[in-house]
Write a structure and sequence with these properties.
Number of strands: 0
Oligomer: single chain
Order of helices and strands: HHHH
Largest sheet: none
Distance between the termini: 19 Å
Radius of gyration: 13 Å
Strand content: under 5%
Number of domains: 1
Protein backbone atom coordinates (compact mmCIF):
# COMPACT_ATOMS: atom_id res chain seq x y z
CA UNK A 1 0.00 0.00 0.00
CA UNK A 2 2.77 2.46 0.88
CA UNK A 3 4.61 1.64 -2.34
CA UNK A 4 1.47 2.09 -4.46
CA UNK A 5 0.77 5.40 -2.74
CA UNK A 6 4.33 6.61 -3.37
CA UNK A 7 4.20 5.58 -7.03
CA UNK A 8 0.86 7.32 -7.46
CA UNK A 9 2.14 10.48 -5.77
CA UNK A 10 5.17 10.50 -8.07
CA UNK A 11 3.03 10.08 -11.19
CA UNK A 12 0.21 12.35 -9.99
CA UNK A 13 0.92 15.26 -12.38
CA UNK A 14 0.26 12.83 -15.24
CA UNK A 15 -2.89 11.38 -13.66
CA UNK A 16 -4.96 14.45 -12.79
CA UNK A 17 -5.70 17.90 -14.14
CA UNK A 18 -3.77 20.88 -12.77
CA UNK A 19 -6.81 22.28 -10.98
CA UNK A 20 -7.08 19.22 -8.68
CA UNK A 21 -3.39 18.33 -8.44
CA UNK A 22 -2.77 20.10 -5.14
CA UNK A 23 -5.83 18.52 -3.51
CA UNK A 24 -4.79 14.99 -4.54
CA UNK A 25 -1.20 15.65 -3.46
CA UNK A 26 -2.45 16.64 -0.02
CA UNK A 27 -4.58 13.50 0.26
CA UNK A 28 -1.76 11.16 -0.79
CA UNK A 29 0.83 12.90 1.39
CA UNK A 30 -1.57 12.53 4.32
CA UNK A 31 -1.96 8.83 3.58
CA UNK A 32 1.80 8.43 3.28
CA UNK A 33 2.31 10.14 6.65
CA UNK A 34 -0.33 7.95 8.31
CA UNK A 35 0.34 4.65 6.54
CA UNK A 36 0.17 2.69 9.82
CA UNK A 37 -3.35 4.01 10.36
CA UNK A 38 -4.37 2.93 6.86
CA UNK A 39 -2.85 -0.52 7.37
CA UNK A 40 -4.96 -1.00 10.48
CA UNK A 41 -8.24 -0.15 8.72
CA UNK A 42 -10.52 -2.87 7.46
CA UNK A 43 -11.47 -3.43 4.81
CA UNK A 44 -8.17 -2.49 3.26
CA UNK A 45 -9.70 -2.77 -0.21
CA UNK A 46 -10.52 -0.64 -2.09
CA UNK A 47 -8.57 2.27 -0.67
CA UNK A 48 -10.61 5.37 -1.48
CA UNK A 49 -7.54 7.53 -2.07
CA UNK A 50 -6.46 5.35 -5.04
CA UNK A 51 -9.80 4.96 -6.80
CA UNK A 52 -9.73 6.84 -10.07
CA UNK A 53 -6.00 7.57 -9.88
CA UNK A 54 -4.16 4.27 -10.21
CA UNK A 55 -6.85 1.65 -10.41
CA UNK A 56 -4.24 -1.04 -11.08
CA UNK A 57 -3.71 -1.17 -7.30
CA UNK A 58 -7.38 -1.97 -6.73
CA UNK A 59 -7.29 -4.50 -9.58
CA UNK A 60 -4.33 -6.26 -7.93
CA UNK A 61 -6.17 -6.41 -4.61
CA UNK A 62 -9.27 -7.70 -6.37
CA UNK A 63 -7.23 -10.55 -7.93
CA UNK A 64 -5.12 -11.86 -5.07
CA UNK A 65 -5.50 -15.51 -6.02
CA UNK A 66 -3.78 -17.06 -9.01
CA UNK A 67 -6.16 -16.94 -11.95
CA UNK A 68 -6.85 -15.52 -15.39
CA UNK A 69 -5.88 -11.99 -14.35
CA UNK A 70 -2.32 -13.07 -13.69
Amino acid sequence: MAWACTVTLTKLPHLVEDDVLERHQGILEGVDNAVDHWHSRLPIFPPPYMTGLNDWHNEWLDNLIEGPYW
